[in-house]
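Lab notebook, bench 4. The sequencing result for the construct came back, and we need a structural model before the next group meeting so we can plan mutations. Quick request posted to the team channel:

Model the 3D structure of this chain.
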Amino acid sequence: MQNVYKLVISEKPSVGKPIAAVLGANERRDGYFMGGGYIVSWCFGHLAELAEAAAYDEKYAKWRYNDLPILPEHWQMVVGKDKKKQFAVLKQLMNAPDVT
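Done. Here's the predicted structure in token form:
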């Protein structure tokens, strides 16, 4: 039978580390701790943010009063370049078959 883990996601590493210690997740991995039936990982503040207005239409690269309000039909999210690795770690963990 395959182990099943509960995934706990904290705001930042300095919060995730003591949570992992309390839960017995003492095995350090790249971007998370694992053990005791838990995986503890973290964000770095906001991993994803709303896209800039120019992502919807180049004419919004320079804002004009007449273009406001800018209300896209579907809001877009972007992941900062410095946060892509941790975003990928969390995505992989959330989609792992042995994680609930």
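The chain has a mean pLDDT of 93.
Will bring this to the meeting.
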